[in-house]
Amino acid sequence: MFADLSPLIAATAQWLTRSYPSGGSALDSALCEVQARQAVTVAAWLRYPTPMDAALVGVAGTGGSDRLDQVVGVDGSAYGMETDGPDEDAWRTWVDEVVVSWAACLLADPELAARAVAALADSSHTTGVTVDFRRLTDPDDHGRRAAALLRHPDLVAPITEMHRAGLVQRLTTGQRLTA
Questions:
Q1: 18 to each of 21, 33, 78, 134, 143, how far by Cα in Å?
Q2: Which pLDDT tens digit goes with each residue over 147-174?
């Protein structure tokens, strides 16, 4: 059974960092990517809280990035991807729209990010491991500058508005998202 969310997390973080790039040095790009990956990990763990949920998304798929691309007004060529074949964009099929939206919410709202990380304390994803989401919940000044576009509430608003209500419901009631 497929219970590993790493392909989903990698593709979704890549979509975020390509849509809202750092624009700075290699270190800035790395700091931006770490923050995106931490936000996506938290969002994915909230969205798929059990091994069965993770296995089901592995079988059913995520839906891909097509709608997200339309919302932000880009297509594959905007990523600098002059494709030589159909496999060049294959990673985009692993992008999860809800996880992107939730991750953008977490990046744009530090209080919501802290609540989300706290909600994972007793989850099956964190059992037996120590996780540190400090780059997400408490970035230093350099980290905030590196991910300025990714953390800007107005710039990510079209993405956050897509599924923010589901994230707030999940954190408020502890119930799984049903749609």
A1: 5, 10, 9, 22, 17
A2: 999 999 999 999 999 999 999 999 998 7
For the chain, strand residue ranges (E) read: none
Cβ atoms of 3 and 80 within 8 Å: the answer is no
Question: Are the C-beta atoms of 102 and 157 separated by less than 8 Å?
Answer: no
Burial letters 46-74, b for 16+ CB under 10 A, else e: bbbbeeebbbebbeeebebbeebbebbee
Beta bridge partners of 63: 96
Using pLDDT thresholds of 50, 70 and 90, give the confidence band for residue 107: very high
Instruction: Report in angstroms the alpha-carbon separations of 136 from 17, 19, 24, 57, 168.
Output: 14, 18, 19, 25, 18
Residues 6 or more apart whose CB falls under 8 angstroms from that of 136 comprise 35, 38, 39, 42, 106, 107, 113, 117
8 A C-beta contact, residue 15 and residue 82:
no
